[in-house]
Amino acid sequence: MNPTPHTELIEVSALRLGMFVHLDEGWMSHPFAFSSFKITSEEQLATLRSIGLSVLRWSPQDSDPEPAAVEPASGGRALTPDKQALVDTRLAHREVLESQRRALAVCERQFGEATRASSLVFDNVAAQPADAGQAAEVLVRQLVDKMVGAEDVCIRLLSEGAGDKVSAHAVSVSVICLLMGRAFGLGEADMLDLGLGALLHDVGKLDIPFRYHHREDHFNAAENKYYESHVATGTAHARRLGLSAGASVVIAQHHECSDGSGFPLGINSDRTTVPSRIVALVNAYDNLCNPLNPARAVTPHEAVAQLFAQGRNRFDTATLGAFIKMMGVYPAGSVVQLTDDRFALVVGVSFSRGLRPRVLVHDPKVPREEAVILDLETVSGLGIRRSLKPMSLPEAALGYLSPRPRVNYFFEPARVLEPQS
Questions:
Q1: Measured over all CA atoms, what is the biggest interatomic distance in the chain, rounded to whole angstroms?
Q2: What is the pTM of this model?
Q3: End-to-end distance of the chain based on CA atoms, in angstroms?
Q4: Does domain 99-325 have CATH number 3.40.50.2000?
């Protein structure tokens, strides 16, 4: 295993408190909330020494105390203050860039592992329902454990092509729903019900032809009824999978609306559960951003605006308000123009700073592969002026930012980035 730039290999026996370490074995193979973290307790040290690794990677620049400074070579001339400042700035830029690349790689690897696990669950629903139900519960419990173990998290935009569409939809919806449940302070049992219901909310579509997986405007009454039947078949699968009553209710109610206009029972929010209301809203959001026909997709910002304007009667007010607060007015995936007129892509939103997200900025003077992500919370005097449709961008900015045709989300620690010029 070759260490990536700015990381070094270290024997597990030599680990100490304050070291920032990286676990490369996959997020399901260890009990920690995240695969990259600073060691802050003796318990973490003991756990690291017990999971069977002999060496791992650590980041000296992210560790505390910092490594001793290297003395200049004898006979070498000292740089002028201006040149030294330029060198320091470039080094800092490289370190931030590498840290951001590593963080994205971790998110994408974890999302990929989750989508593969989800795909196996769906593949086994018919032939091995009990095994599929247990595998789904294991996956959701791992997601819950990692969320609960983090003080603050950031919703992260992922690259295109992470997982097949069915599994990507299931995992993205599950992640956002669980983050919503976390914001609501749901207990462990409700979080598991919420996650299982979110992951398997469309399991009933396994029994109907693909052309009926999404409601189309041209459907006649019989076709609409066939599409709506996926809820009943989903609840039947929930029994075969051995899901809890709470998770089964989520599957049964994920298309019900606050005003009673949903299906199959047409009940209002007084008769639906909190997890069901969360899944109904998040599922609607994901379907707006990622419809069957990509030409009909709306931007994440437009999806939030549409849900607020047209969905205030369809969705529970408290759930909708909490969703917008969590995702931000400009959710990850939104293309925006900043107050200094530059164009940017929102790539991350932290719970505590929803109005000041992280953005990738189009800068013709900086190569795309060297562009760092700016945390608007830490950059003085810079904000978002407006949201834009990707196709309204100048050609150079569109190619540079490369907005994702499909919006997939995962989560990562909400580390505050250093201000960048």
A1: 86
A2: 0.80
A3: 35
A4: no
